[in-house]
Amino acid sequence: MSPQLWRAGEWFLRSGIQQPNGGVARYYRTDRTCNAPVSTEITGYAISTLVYLHSLRHDERYIEAASRAARFLTRVAWNREMAAMPFEIDPPAYSYFFDCGIIVRGLLAAWRASGDDEFLDGAVAVGQSMMRDFASDKGDFHPIIALPSKTPEPRDRMRWSRSAGCYQLKAAMAWWDLFEATGDNCFREPYQRVLEYSLERDDEFLLHPEQSGVMDRLHAYSYFLEGLLPFVNQPRCVSALSGGIVRLYALLRKIAPEFARSDVYAQLLRVRLFADWAGAVALDGLAASEEAAALAGFQASDADLRINGGYWFGRKGGEVLPYVNPVSAAFAGQALELWENRAQINRHLLI
Q1: Rounded to an integer, what is the distance from CA 96 to the centroid of its chain?
Q2: d(Cα 48, Cα 39) in Å, to the nearest integer?
Q3: Average pLDDT score over residue span 157-177
């Protein structure tokens, strides 16, 4: 494990970003010296991160923290009465399709690492909720539903998180993971359905009138590229990966002087490596080294344990934004580790 990843791991364990009940806050805000509320999605990401850390360095603290986070999702966050996973639990007003997919993948990571069937059962329940509660009459999946009614929230094409789009493929990948874990064929078709409509619509996703909006969509578009990985050797997926990497690189370089997100650098670097390992898209080593160098500059160094070792969300106009972000830390830490050590990992360990 590299020093940068060890520092990021210590931030997850010691910063207070994970609450005593196991839930993980959306981010730490340095200008207000406080954490944002706990997010079920971010808790799912944290589980996957802690399991990945444990795969490299068998420090039991990682598994203990991952298990606490998983139990928070299965015992506290999961609403048995509604059979739904809320976006936040106070109050449980909405459920997000994308968040549920990340939570399923986190619970499956915890199950693989611990062997605790509680986590597999929880993943199956959330995966079934995704199929049951988010399906639309158009054949796609609603991005957000209100609770407890489970009625879909209005969509907004200008806000990617409130639209159905190709970014949902990473969440849908959770169904394919569930199929692999359980052998239940009911989880195959919905992933393949999202894959099909994502491949048909990905070209239009990056359209936005503002540069900052395009940068935010680069983050979401990266989810689409990551979601292709189960079928990475199919010709259409190879073509989408190849073209997507080129498009992502060009727009990131263009917009970064104005607004740069650390997670976009990390996601692009990771997908380059996974595509190269699969023999789908040859690695552009020069571009990857540029991305790694830029990404390393986002890791925070501070005497304050709430900050030190974490990763800044981004920069605008050359100024660091006041968010130390678990997702940024997870993606950046993994991307740099994979780049520096070039040790191929299983797709299930992709955070």
Answers
A1: 13
A2: 15
A3: 93
288 phi and psi angles, rounded to 5 deg: -65, -40
Tokens of 127: 């995966």
DSSP state letter for 83? T
- What DSSP string describes 181-211? HH--GGGHHHHHHHHHHHHHHGGGTT--SSH
CA dist 345 → 96, 206, 209 (Å)? 29, 29, 38
Identify the three-state secondary structure at position 34.
strand
Q: Are strands 259-261 and 34-35 parallel, antiparallel or unpaired?
A: unpaired
For the segment 210-260, what is each residue's pLDDT rounded down to a tens digit?
A: 888 899 999 999 999 999 999 998 999 999 999 999 999 999 999 999 999
Distance between CA atoms of 69 and 122, rounded to whole angstroms? 13
pLDDT in tens, 112-132: 999 999 999 999 999 999 999
Count of domains for the chain: 1
Q: Tell me if 55 sits within 8 A of 1, measured CB to CB.
A: no
* Structural domain containing residue 98: 3-349
What CATH number is attached to the domain comprising 292? 1.50.10.10
